[in-house]
Amino acid sequence: MRRTLTMAAVLAALLVPAGPLPVAEAVGGAVPVAVGRWSAREAQAFWTAERMASAAPLPPGPPDSADPAPPELPEPQELPEPQEPAEPVEPVEPVEPAEEIPVATRPPTPTGLPLPSAPPAATPAPTPAPAPTPAATAAPTPTRAPAPPTPAPLPAPARVAVAPLPALTPGIGQNFDGIPVAGRMFLVKDGGAYFCTASVVSSPGRNLVLSAGHCLLGSDTQQVAFVPQYTRAKPQPYGMFPVLRDAGGHSKIWIDPRYRSQGVDRAATLDVAFAQVGPNSRGFPVEAVVGGNRLVTGAAYAQARVTLIGHPASAARPRVCVNRTTKFTSADARIPGSFLRINCTGYPGGTSGGPFLTRYDARTGTGDVVGVIGGWKTGGDKADTSYSSYFGADIRKLYEKAVAGAKAGR
């Protein structure tokens, strides 16, 4: 289903105040956001509950749109080009990925990136050790200005509650209360407030989220923030995580340069984006709060059981569905390539960027992410059939660039 605006979405868009949206202000409303700055508190001041509720699903660009985007974020070094994995052979009965080994050893084997992390259990802050008592005969020391007190470390975030998924019939989507690792990605583009779906992906910095490339494409994409497990009733259950900006004021988003230059159709196999998010207003990184899915590349197109999460345009809650995936190869020369395809009812605009999860763990609410809604016709042209770009060597390389870029920016 090509993710276009439905009538409900159009009405939602009309709720956005006319004219350009105001620049976000710091809490208290006294200081405008400076170039290169965009904190959790500033994001919360801008993305009020009313503005989030009125945001519309982001419509795709024209079929051959190319993005005159800002230059790629600087990277500390050029990463080696991973060897392209051989075309996976679809088994009669799909099997789970084999035991992971380094890419350089056996590229065709499905390879996972960091293990999905469950949110840590709450732990008490350590008790500072008492200062030693100086000896009575200690020699006098030079007088110095007292050092500023060291702030006590923040207690670890409490373990999030992961509700069990509803009873699911294969291929039939249901609205539910969501899972902490997935949520809405809000952004301002062309003066309007929009959203897509995104999810946390495990990374060394614990600060990366994954969505579709067409959701975050464009040099005018600003005020970007991720809200885990968003619902209309509970718009910020775990706070807000702003997509950080570089010194030039550009959001720290990684999209394959070919997707930017060739457009959403000709480069549909690269419809994937990673973004670096800052901590929430309490100072915690997103993966420490809600956990993260493990990125898996090189898996088979055909998977026996995939859990699909998305935020539909007119729904107050997200949607979940389970079904098998199959391989779809486009016969349209304007949209070349092969994609994952899944039949799940009720995934219109707004669900773009939603994760395809295998090996979903009901205890942690995480799994292996093998795709995101996007790719062929930016996710498809029917609400009941969705697609994903194949996660192969190109997506692994993009992830590695995001990891390196996020580390360099710290």
Describe this structure in words.
This protein has 410 residues and is of the alpha+beta class. It has 7 helices and 17 strands. It has helices at 7-14, 40-46, 49-54, 213-216, 257-262, 286-290, 393-408, and strands spanning 56-57, 111-112, 174-175, 182-189, 192-201, 208-211, 222-228, 241-242, 253-255, 273-276, 294-297, 303-310, 319-329, 338-343, 355-361, 366-372, 385-389. The strands form 2 sheets. Strands 2, 3, 11, 12, 13, 14, 15, 16 and 17 form a 9-stranded mixed sheet that branches. Strands 1, 4, 5, 6, 7, 8, 9 and 10 form an 8-stranded mixed sheet that branches. A hairpin with a 6-residue loop joins strand 5 and strand 6 (208-211). The chain is globular and about 45 Å long.
Give the DSSP E fraction (strand runs of 2 or more residues).
15-25%
Kindly state the mean pLDDT as a whole number?
A: 78
Radius of gyration: 22 Å
Distance between the termini: 38 Å
How many separate helices?
A: 7
Helix content: 10-25%
Shape: globular
Oligomer, anyone?
Answer: single chain
Largest sheet: 9 strands, mixed
Strand/helix succession: HHHEEEEEEHEEEHEHEEEEEEEH
Structural class: alpha+beta
Write a concise keyword list for the protein shown above.
410 residues; alpha+beta; 9-stranded mixed beta sheet; 8-stranded mixed beta sheet; globular
